[in-house]
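Model it.
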Amino acid sequence: MLNAVQVLAENNFGDTRTGGLAGPMGLFLIVLLGTATVLLIRNMNARLRRLPERFPHQGGPVGTDSSATGPSDGTTGQESRTNPSNGHQQP
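Modeled.
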């Protein structure tokens, strides 16, 4: 009977000190990722605060006819004429 108790009480799990660094390393990684997340959120909030309320040349509703405006400057579709005598544009 004493022999059976000794066999059951024996440590068959090997060296228990080899995985001793896993806990502190996991805690370090969690703290590092948490810190990086907080810094990224603060940076994004600061960038969002610096954005203007509305951007200039903001387009209208999606369903509008785009032929009435110029390519990207918002001017009308009429072409300006150049006066050949002095090189100035006429409206």
